[in-house]
Amino acid sequence: MPSPRAFRLTRDMVRARARDGVIVVTFGNYAFMDFILTWVHHLTGLGLDNLLVGAMDTKLLRELYLRGVPVFDMGSRMATEDAGWGSPTFHKMGREKVLLINELLPFGYELLMCDTDMVWLKNPLPYLARYPDAHLLTSSDQVIPTVTDDSLENWRQVSGAYNIGIFHWRPTEPAKRLAKDWKDLVLSDDKIWDQNAFNDLVHKVFGQPVQGEELVYSYDGKLKLGVLPASIFCSGHTYFVQGMYQQLRLEPYAVHTTFQYAGTEGKRHRLREAMLFFDQPPYYDSPGGFLSFKPNIPKQLLLDGAHTIESHFQLVNYQMKQIRTALAMASLLKRTLVMPPLWCRLDRMWFGHPGVMEGTLTRQPFLCPMDHVFEVHVMLKELPEEEFGAHIDFREYSFLENPSLPKQVKESFLEVQLCDEHGTRCSTANGTNEHRPLLLPRNSTEQKLLNVFYSYKNVKVIHFSSMVDAFRGFADAAVESQFRNRVKRYTGIWCCVELREIGHIYYDMYWDEKPSWKPHPPLNREEDHPPWS
């Protein structure tokens, strides 16, 4: 390692990395190293090398340097653990971003500043160059399109907050003044959220259009601001839920993993579902192999009738029961479960809404992210085995289609077809070959499954034609109890019914064992708890 002085952020360091007067920057601590490597992987894959990464701890600094990533020391001396949203560490990271912008702008280069939980899908620099008069171009949390092409949002119609996870600064005097005022504001009170402070400042003076109308004078009446279109500089909602860029036939430049419900783990999983996360080779070759299945969804559950809370829960619950069986079989066979795609009729938010937000392009039904229903962060947590049984590993629904999946995994494949155990052809003794699936009786016992699949323990992917009535259940009551304790905690909430003090409804992994179960919000605070507590 070079001396610490070599990692100080200087004008010369930025000059060496900048191209055409532009530098692209992100920052983070060691907990986000895989996000940072994903960010770098996408940018360099687009042919961009004018990037720098700020390291908030020495562990990340060393790892990035050894991997050849251009890195500088932010001097933050921050802990290496994850910073949960809203935590003191989260707010410290926000303040560090503001300080960093103030440090970089005086160097005289255009600054494209990014959070680590976003990825670039297309080179944004030509797009940003289309607006040379803009002092600042910012992304937003806008979920209703204000334009249908790739022009800037109509700033008059933007109601969502400006999101500081992606924004482009030109080193103009108004931009520098804004950065300084922003710094003074967030340093004056460590409870101020940097994004709220930014929004407050740019709206101090706001509403006079710049000639041409696409930009607006803001902040001090001199700063020229533009809002990047959320259809192609996507949020977690416009990309993963609405698929706005697809519906408008546009090419997305970026996706930022906002609007999700499972913390850092949920962000990582969403990028994996979209096959955008840069995982290391061991992720694609689990030692015990993988188990996947084809979900069964009757047409009437998916497509018929009105999109109501009742029809949404009927659809999700039907899928959940199959996933519960698959989790049990994966646990029994010590395999990693490849989750199926998940269909929803209703969107999920943090507040009451009529099912989908009015004015958005959300289609019904839609393939919903896993964190809309499942507590991804809980499923990844190491729980005590004596109470919850063995950990059950899982992968995203797109896993087997990922180009990074090695050939030896793709080609080691066994198809299993369920059959009626009293049928004349339903016998595992028939064996299988590469052209014919293995036949397995429905409602097979634990011992039957162990006996049958022992012969295929070296097969990498076992794929079931269905999970409906595939497994009778664990023979040992203690094992069954541990499994139930575990998977009951895997489901989250749907949110929210309008005009209710308590509007959320808990999903229940064992809904089918409760004849009186209905998808209703808790009536009071005493009832407001998960079904397992």
TrEMBL record:
Name of protein: Uncharacterized protein
